[in-house]
């Protein structure tokens, strides 16, 4: 008989920013270090039932909008179950468990490297069935249908009412982070680094596919960092001014750091880039208790990363990145017109 593992909420100490307790939260970054609790705070959530004005005001002020309950929870969990059923032949799931729980089989997590990290680890689809299945999943109807969820597009239109014809880019990335997989957390970056073929006209929707408590590797956001991202990109633009068009647009050109990323060490990056209103005060990394149905929308210059997945129930962290733009203004066509494939240079 299959062992049922219930998708549970985070422990009480993690249930909301108002409760505090950041000193008890252990978030590890890609450098292998724990982020200093002194530079951690809670990402402010907002209800999908907030007014359009409230949504836009918070997005414009913070550069990030953490919206609770955008999608029906049941729909998100159905997607999670379908995905893990799709990749289950690879042996990634613990035997006898329900696919919706996504319980890792154990062993070396690097042998189950997924999109976004496999190339860093030198893992190829030919030697990793999980990676191969994860790649083909991007063109399956159940994945494409999930990305086109009407609730997400409605929220995009509410955040960007001036967009004449909002479109969803074809290219998305299903990211699966195995528990205790060292060196595979998302490094510090902002999205415009990878979308340089157009001005910063896009909007990202990060969709957790399942519950992701703070210790389980969800996205973390550097507070008030849109101006910082813009400043950094302007510096890269100057450095790359004499490069070829291809090099200038590439996130992986010779002048970039660590494959387009800004740092592996979130704590160090925070302290090296203090709050603009108080140079003696480091910017804080904002964490959250993400639940199935939540969606986070962020600005192309918003600096973010993720923690290492230390899920106490050994659950695989699954999420997808969706990007939107207005078809009537310049946007990065490299992302809009093709599905993700390994080594596509984006």
Explain what this protein looks like in three dimensions:
The structure is a single chain. By secondary structure, the chain is of the alpha+beta class. It is 25% helix and 14% strand. The chain has ten helices and eleven strands. It has helices at 52-62, 73-87, 118-121, 129-137, 141-147, 150-159, 226-239, 245-249, 266-272, 333-336; strands at residues 40-42, 45-47, 64-68, 166-168, 173-177, 203-208, 219-222, 285-287, 295-298, 304-306, 317-326. Strand 2, helix 1 (52-62) and strand 3 (64-68) form a beta-alpha-beta unit. The chain is globular.
Please give the largest β-sheet.
7 strands, mixed
Specify the structural class: alpha+beta
The overall strand count is: 11
Low-confidence stretches: 1-19
Write the layout of secondary structure elements.
Elements: E1 40-42, E2 45-47, H1 52-62, E3 64-68, H2 73-87, H3 118-121, H4 129-137, H5 141-147, H6 150-159, E4 166-168, E5 173-177, E6 203-208, E7 219-222, H7 226-239, H8 245-249, H9 266-272, E8 285-287, E9 295-298, E10 304-306, E11 317-326, H10 333-336
Parallel strand pairs: 1-8, 2-3
Antiparallel strand pairs: 3-9, 4-11, 5-11, 6-9, 6-11, 7-8, 7-10
Protein name: Phytanoyl-CoA dioxygenase
Organism: Kwoniella dendrophila CBS 6074
Pfam family, one: PhyH
